[in-house]
């Protein structure tokens, strides 16, 4: 049984259980925070953030993310060309970490959140336990996508020796950071309680 079936609402601020009084929203009796049976416009907001992240995913991978100059020479690198360069220099473990954090994780997040949204809206016959596990995994791995951005920020701040050596961030880094932030926000705006709302009536596919 769901808490809403028992006429209860959980406050996400102080975790106080409140009696359901107003389906359109009410204030928590303990802390006064606004609480709702389900987050208002959760699906619409998540879709908007996800689509924006998907649009920025292309420039994030096609535009240069970083340019390393040594003695005045250097060429801009995209995420994938940087991975290839690391492989060519025999740094396979680092290349694997960058590939997973910058290519695999963002792609999985985009596809995973999209699958959750479609399964909830179309009430597909997917295991709710598998979907909630996927949602929790997406939330957990979200922070690791910022690995490239942290490395670039450190290199830009530390490696600045004029014409001898320097590191410059590219427009791809801005697009990639935007993708990471937008997917993290999409995971936050998605209400996981929606996963369990349709488990009782899987025969409807509206």
UniProtKB/TrEMBL annotation:
Cellular component terms (Gene Ontology): plasma membrane
Keyword Electron transport applies: no
Cellular compartment(s): Cell inner membrane
Primary location class: membrane
This protein's record includes keyword Amino-acid biosynthesis: no
Organism superkingdom: Bacteria
Annotated TM spans: 47-71, 91-120, 141-163, 169-190
The entry's keywords: Cell inner membrane, Cell membrane, Membrane, Transmembrane, Transmembrane helix
Coiled-coil annotated residue ranges, if any: none
Protein name stated in the entry: Paraquat-inducible membrane protein A
């Amino acid at each position: 049984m769901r808490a809403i079936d028992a006429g209860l609402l959980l406050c996400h601020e102080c975790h106080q259980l409140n009696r359901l009084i107003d389906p359109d929203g009410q204030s928590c009796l303990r802390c006064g925070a606004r609480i709702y049976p389900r987050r208002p416009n959760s699906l619409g907001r998540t879709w908007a953030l996800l689509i924006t992240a998907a649009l920025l995913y292309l420039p994030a991978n096609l535009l240069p993310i970083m340019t390393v100059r040594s003695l005045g020479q250097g060429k801009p690198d995209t995420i994938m060309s940087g991975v290839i360069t690391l492989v060519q220099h025999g740094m396979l473990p680092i290349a694997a970490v960058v590939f997973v954090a910058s290519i695999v994780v963002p792609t999985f997040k985009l596809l995973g959140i999209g699958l959750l949204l479609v399964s909830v809206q179309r009430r597909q016959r997917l295991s709710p336990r598998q979907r909630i596990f996927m949602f929790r995994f997406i939330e957990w791995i979200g922070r690791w996508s910022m690995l490239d951005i942290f490395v670039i920020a450190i290199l830009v701040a530390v490696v600045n020796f004029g014409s001898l050596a320097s590191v410059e961030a590219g427009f791809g880094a801005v697009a990639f950071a935007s993708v990471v932030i937008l997917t993290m926000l999409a995971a936050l705006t998605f209400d996981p309680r929606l996963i369990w709302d349709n488990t009782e009536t899987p025969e409807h596919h509206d």
